[in-house]
């Protein structure tokens, strides 16, 4: 019996629900149910049908939420014929969604993340690190009075309510890793600090200049993780000897803001890396990129590897594009705060499973050179599978999945090719300020070093 189960675990699933069960395993369901007390009587909408139907609703087509619900419920019933059927009405489904605890959905996401971690294996590590890109984006919500009160005003005056999404992306593969939701005015640095617990000890956190902050860097080092942040003119760095930015390639610096010095706190030893501009052609880096990291040894993290990791950070933007445009979550449908947060949580889980099951199925054992699937092609095949639940069967899902590989086109044009009326034109960050320590600062530094030693 044990050998039969092992063989079954090694076999490639042939249907969509088979792939979903690779991540939503019985252990994951048990883990999610264990965070809340068990009811005496089973509700009409248990956790499993509630989540699976919401995942299918995220993937399915339809002109309205109720139409997508009918398709998703029909797909669930077709895949679980021997189980108790859930409720029939969309109103009842929404009531059950509102009652579902968010901590249960977060436990479910943590279980799926563990499954992805196990299936990636050694492929999650590149050059000794697990590069994790972090970025944020706003998701628009309906203009209901409750959402306007609960989510507050963000962005321009009279703008629609927004949910702020901060997400970690596994940069070598482009897979969504973990996320945190908040109102449109939420602080993304605070979100990142909450998400540190979802990262492995090998993680290298890659962020743009907006995330730079002394308290955040201290928090990252406090949990023994590493960082690679882009620098801007808002950051002041210090050297022991006189140095010029014009001649800088890489070297040790001290991150020691003025307010930190006034508080009597010690500086953080870092390494500043300069990635020079490569030319003036389309898609070329037109300005120097300045990167700061806590990895002081160039043999462990070379300038070329740091440049590669930061170049991969654009895959965060690719993830947001997939979620907003391919999954069509540029605007959420829920009309209450409870529904909006649950819709966002489960639609992100649906995006994660969509990317993970196809990417891991088509990725070779040693491939770590970027995403290998087209999310749009995978979504089309998923919709065919959902429609086939109530229609004659089409070709096997596993065979159709093999045709969802991404193209090999290289980027030759700028990533931003047009101006959007609701966005400010992007201006590349300027170099950081590089200063030489004064005698008073050197004395204060020696005092900190003697206290630490």
TrEMBL record:
Region Disordered, residue ranges: 408-436
InterPro entries: RNaseH-like_sf (IPR012337), Transposase_11 (IPR002559)
Superkingdom per UniProt: Bacteria
Ranges of Basic residues composition bias in the record: 408-429
Domain Transposase IS4-like: 135-350
Alphabetical list of Pfam families matching this protein: DDE_Tnp_1
A single MF term (Gene Ontology): DNA binding
Any single biological process term in GO: DNA transposition
Name by which UniProt lists this protein: Transposase family protein
